Amino acid sequence: MPESLKKSKYILLVEDNKDDEDLTVRALRKGNISNDIQVVRDGAEALDYLFAQGAYVGRDVTQRPQVVLLDLKLPKISGMEVLKKIRETESTKSLPVVILTSSREERDLLNGYQLGANSYICKPVDMNQFTVAIQQLGLYWLVLNETLT
Amino acid sequence: MTQKNSKNNFQDETEATHRSPSSSFRRLAGYFLVLVSGLIFFGWSLHIPALITVRETWPPVAPLAALNFFCIGILLVIMPGPLQRAEVVKEKFILGLSVAVLLTSAMILGRYLLRLETPSIDILVFKDSAKKMGLEYKGLMAPATALNFLLSSFWFIADFAKPRFEILKSVVSLFVLALAMLMLGAYAYGASTLYELPVFLKMSAATATMFLVMGLGLISADPPFGFHWQSPIRFWQDKNTVRERPLYASLLVVFSVFIIAGIATSQSLNRLIGTIQGVTETQAHIQELDRLMMGLLNAESGQRGFLLTGKEEYLDPYFEGVLEYHQAREGLIEWIHQNPQYREPFKAIEDSAAAKLHELSETVRQRRAQGLAVANKAAHSDVGQSAMVNIRERIQFIKNDQLRLLSEQKDENRRQTANTISSITVGSLLATVLLLACLNLYMRNSLKRSRVEEEVRHLNTALEGKLHEIEVVNKELESFSYSVSHDLRAPLRAMAGFSNILVEDYKDKIDEAGRGYLLRIIAASDRMARLIDGILDLSRISRRQVRREDVDLSTIAEQVVAELRAIEPERPAEVLIQPQLKVRGDVDLIGALMQNLLGNAWKFTSKKNFTRIHFGATIKDGLTVFFVRDNGAGFDMAYAEKLFGTFQRLHTEVDFKGTGVGLATVRRIAHLHGGEVWAEGAVNQGATFYFTLGS
Questions:
Q1: Which of B483, B488, B493 to mutate to test the interface with A (most CBs of A within 10 A)?
Q2: Cβ of A130 under 8 Å from any chain B Cβ?
Q3: Residue A144 has what DSSP assignment?
Q4: Fewest 10 Å CB contacts: which of A14, B89, B223, B412?
Q5: pLDDT at residue B9 is higher than 50
Q6: From B485, B494, B498, residue closest to A105, measured CB to CB
Q7: Edge-first strand listing for the sheet containing B687-691
Q8: Per mean pLDDT, which range of A115-124, B323-332, B438-447 is the poorest?
Q9: How many interchain CB pairs under 8 A, A with B?
Q10: For residue B486, which residues of chain A lie inside 8 Å, CB to CB?
């Protein structure tokens, strides 16, 4: 696999909680997923990153993440709105988005799927379950799943 | 969603309680008006006189009046009952129809008031029709009719602004009714003077009938009136309750009084007219008798003048006298013939008069032929004189008899006048008093009703306020549980997660005791996570709208038990499930209930050597009671009530894991279905949980 291609297979993690970020990254690394992880802290930053605007002006937009791991409860712009914007925009329409959240509320599930989320994962409190969930997630979306390029 | 539904239910209930006999009569009256006015239109369009008037000489129902009756009929059918409110579209429709009636009747009334000669629209439209039917009346709505319609439209418009115009409404409906009754009475007793008075100008009998029905319809649209009899006295004594019944009877009484007073008045009027005619006739006869005498006297004096002077012009009074006599005689003959007691004296008068007239003409002839002397001699004979005396006596006899009769007749006349006046006065006074009493009764009832309505409205407002409060609380609860769901779990995960990292990555730096503490942090976080999930489940259930469908409890029980067995396949257990237990309810909620109860049974029998669980049903007080029985740890009956409280536990976490939310959820689900849940048990003797799920 050429280096540039491998490099381009990175994860965009939208997560405001540093604890959750660390736990997620650790779980991925423990599951031998060494892909780059780009972290953004809120919904606005996520959109800026994806559409190369604001602080991310000049970023090569063709370098799209392999998967976006999206928390729902975010400062500024909520995860649902970010998802909506991604699906509305032609260039990011088919980007895989996995909702990774604490919420088990039915309406969040419903909204998420209706807005076009590819997957909905509720973060378990139990660390073992959490690790397993994140590792399987990484394995599936980064290794097994074929995305449009 | 739940709130909206409960409001609808409330409205349904109000509607059901007010589908009273009076409101069905109101609808019936409405249908009658629609039907009859439709027929009248038919009559006007197809030139069928029988459809538009009762008798051809009576005025027909004006087309515009028929149209108004049609509108009012529809209004009576569709208007909402008391304490109800129509939907917005219907409300607009009702207002539209009322305003249409108001405008047409105001137009006609204005036309009368301004004495405009322009024909009304309906006359223009149906002019040919009236001509073809050869109707005397042109089909113009009477002013009284227009007034009634105007008032009725006020009634319907006032009905919008309830409850303020109760009194106006009551006065209007009574007035409409009274006017209709008066008109009908006038037709019934042929008092054409009444129904053709300028004010009532030619109101049709059919119109009056329709107003009668309409008035009754209006009155029964108000709850105080109804078809059921109840003593008005009891009603009067009752201070606060609204009764539908007493006024109807009172109104019938007023109606009867109207009729009886009408009959009495019309009869005494007839008698009065009879005596007046008698007086006039007697006076005429006396006059004729005088003329008879005068004629003869005039003839005699004319003859005398001629005898003395011989001048022909003196004969003029003579001829006039003769003519007068004959005229008077002619005028009396018929009457004399009908009165045998006068025949004999009149015959004598006629004979004597003939003799006298013969003597007069003889002397006139002799004076002309033979001169004064011969004629004078003849004139001095006794014949003429005795004839005149005779006549005078006879006439005086008849006249005296007639004068006596006249004085009798005049007495009778006075009596009849007094009678008529008193019957009119008494009748109308009585009717007025009764009508006022009726009005008073009606207004009292209206007031009571306004009070009750006010109270109902107040309660409704309070209820709506409460519903709103509940809505707000529900919303708060929802956002609360939403943030619990999101925010409370993240720190827990951090605690558990980092403790886990410490245990895994730093095991060489932490001793056994430290590791134990970390594991306890992890366990506590885990437990708290389960508690949070339990609360969220419970609140989710509370907010849920309960569906009603057929639920097979036995099948659900089997599935739950199969899942439980799958977790511990090697556990020796005997589970008895009564087949074919069915209920109506929410399949998801009932599934959760069964899961909790069977799960509990499974959990609390885990320390027994052999697990026995029985799910079945019994009938108690006609209600199906389901139960889940186990041979597990049981509980002390002293704490039976505590079992179902949120976070209430009778066992330690060490003995049996649990959050204390499960049975609270069970109770919540039973309550949501209108059912109940309770438990029986003893320590180490097992427990039985009973539940019902509504009827």
A1: B493
A2: yes
A3: I
A4: B89
A5: no
A6: B485
A7: B573-577, B611-620, B623-630, B687-691, B677-681
A8: B438-447
A9: 62
A10: 72-73, 101-103
Burial (Cβ within 10 Å: 0-12, 13-18, ≥19) of residue B164: exposed
Q: Which residues of B622-642 are buried (b: 16+ CB within 10 A; e: fewer)?
A: eebbbbbbbbbbbbeeeeeee
pLDDT digits (tens, 9 = 90+) for B541-568: 777 778 888 999 999 999 999 999 988 8
CA dihedral B365, B370, B374, B376 (to 10 degrees): 60
As a 3-state breakdown, chain A gives helix, strand, coil percent values, each rounded to 5, of: 45, 15, 40
B61 and B206 Cβ atoms separated by less than 8 Å: yes
Rounded CA-CA distance A66/A143 in Å is: 10
Q: Which of B494, B500, B528 sits opposite A19 (nearest CB)?
A: B494
When comparing pLDDT for B187 and B97, which is higher? B97
Chain B CB within 8 Å of residue A8 CB? no
CA B49 to chain centre: 31
pTM listed for this prediction: 0.45
**Hey, are the CB atoms on B536 and A127 less than 8 Å from each other?**
no
Question: Which secondary structure element, helix H or strand E, spans residue B546, and what is its range?
Answer: none
For tokens 């509320």, what's the residue? A105
Residue type, B289: L
The residues, ordered by sequence, that sit 6+ positions from B314 with a Cβ below 8 Å of its Cβ are B302, B305, B306, B308
Task: Identify whether the C-beta of residue A20 lies closer than 8 Å to the C-beta of residue B498.
Answer: no
Helix, strand, coil percent content, chain B, rounded in steps of 5: 75, 5, 20
**CB–CB of B526 and A72 under 8 A?**
no
